[in-house]
Structure prediction request, 739 residues.
Amino acid sequence: MKTLRHLIQKEFIQIFRNKAILPMMTLMPIVQLILLSNAASNEVKQVNIVVVDQDQSESSRLLNRKIIANDRFKLISTAFNSGNALGYLQANTADIVLEIPHNFEKHYLRGENPKLQMLVNAINGQNATVGSGYLNAIIGSFNAEILPVSAPLVPTTARLNVASRNWYNPELDYKHFMAPGILAELTALLTIVLSAMNVVRERELGTIEQINVTPIKKWQFIVGKLVPFLCVGMVLLTVGIIVSKLLFDIPIRGTIGLIFGYAIFNLIAVLGLGLLISNFADTQQQAIFVAFFFIMIFVLMCGLFTPIESMPKWAQYLTIPNPLAHIISVSRKVLMKGSGLWDIRWEFVYTILLAIVFNTLAIWSYKKQQ
Amino acid sequence: MIKVFRAFVQKEWYHIIRDKRTLLILFGMPVAQVLLFGYAISTEFKGAQVDILDYANDDSSTQLIHHLQSSGHFTLNTILASEQEMEKGFKEGTTKLVVVIPEDFDNDLYKGQEITIQLITDGSDPNNANTLLQYATTMLDDFRLEKLQRESALFQIQVEQRMLYNPQLASAYTFIPGTIALILLIVCAMLTSLTIAREKELGTMEILLVSPLPPLLIILGKVTPYAVLAFLDAVLILLLGYFIFKVPVLGSVLLLLFCCLLYVLVGLSLGTLISTRSSSQQQAMMSSLMGLMMPSLILSGFLFPLSSMPKILQFIGQIIPATYFIEILKGIMLRGVGLQFIYSEVLVLLGMVMILLAFTWKNFNVRLQ
Prediction:
């Protein structure tokens, strides 16, 4: 036990005396947390539009005004022919071009059904669907407004109103959703990088040989590496939750202890993987590359930015060995929905399994003799 | 001089080739990313599970339920019997949206009454909730129009909608350019900063500096192989995109490669700059990971629209090279535009190269401490 204490002490001294790494462990993640939480939103708040008004009538101007009045639309320009308007799409200054044809009003008042043409820049499919949806809604309500009095009051006026409610997060505040996930991700990311580079650094510098000739046991060595980084991770998590609470006022509906209890297991799993990578690398560079490869895949597949439910089934199973996916799911469930231990039982089971597998492999693959 | 330079590049080349793990990053990473984005991850959703609480239970409501499923965006999970059952689906996470159809739906629809359809989402995932609402609202509107057209088509404005550049709304059109920008940055900025920091840490940089090679040549020799590899990567991703996901290159390939070169230069100068400022590989890794990769992934408009972000983040997004490069790529590849449409982005990248090189020049220490 005394050996272990000294090992941990040594590790802490090495962490704290490295003035270059220390701010990156503490300040950078918090700055990232604040920046990223604000950035990560799929909401389409601004749609740039060009209106080609070939009609120049009262109705077309009314429609124009209605579009401008909507604060989601930004009128870039009003062109007179569609050739010019297409240029705006080509140059990517406009997202949508709406063309009001010649004699639009005349045809409309005659009871015909004039056609508006909408050209949408669809390179980003999701934004295109959402943007054109906004515009269709405006045109729909414009249509209802200008219905002439003479229009027969047939069922045509049946209106479908949509009343929507969002549970758990009525204002759809993205920060409430993103902050816990990003925090979890940053913590895992930092600990995996630090641990992956640690053992191999000793190997590169040659200090590992000195440890190898001492009677330190393999498990003691691994645990000695694990505990200090676990502490760093937990401190970061605590600071991160406090910052998110103060800045974004994230809801804390569940028990906070549950998150910390779970995070300990998760960090042990992540650290085990880091140490495993470290054991298999000869130089820091190699360790970094392998760790980076995993990080990239973990981050993309963890459900932070894109929902896991919209992945195909086989890809959903692939998220099971991904510790990041579990910690993000747990932090969201507990903080936002107030889930209890029973609701996150599967995450717990998987994480503990991962922790055991990774760490056993880490201890097994650490060889004292070459 | 040329001969020495060649020998130096050769040495660097051996460093790269003999390490399997470097190759993993160089070629495994782009392939893995493109395949993941193509097959596993998607920001669009298909078959979101929907519960329906149908108070009406008449012809029109059945039609509406069919209509909702027709797009492939929604799949029916369960038909609920009462309001009490709504929460269960959300808590278990089996449902994302509940549609409540009011009583007398059929009657009211034909009488022209106002009808309120309730949509209830799981707001704990706002991105998802918002998109679901948008899609569902659009579908309800379609439904109404369809009904109307069958009845009477007087005084209806029609909208002819054309999705330009990407009629199938394929997500590959956004992720291929984004992945190219990201991978080039990883190879150029992160790998070069690491390799120079490694020479510093091991002390071999000092040996190189006292050699008769001019320092400029040392740096050039270090970055040249990475520039070549980055280029290969860009071509690899373009080919993957073209053959697997049918992402075209409509514009001039020459212009595209020229812009890649420009971006590679930005990446390389960023990498050298990072390495001049960091003394260890750990530090170089942390700076490029936290300072370059994450912002480029998130603030470049690749994953999230820049225009929806707070002003200050939009500003940061505008000083990230990837933002401009992705714009250029989309322009040339998908909209097929020439230089006259993207010259401002190209100029910005050129300016960045100048400034970064000047900085690197100032920071580069030729002498030993």
Remarks:
- Chain B has a mean pLDDT of 82.
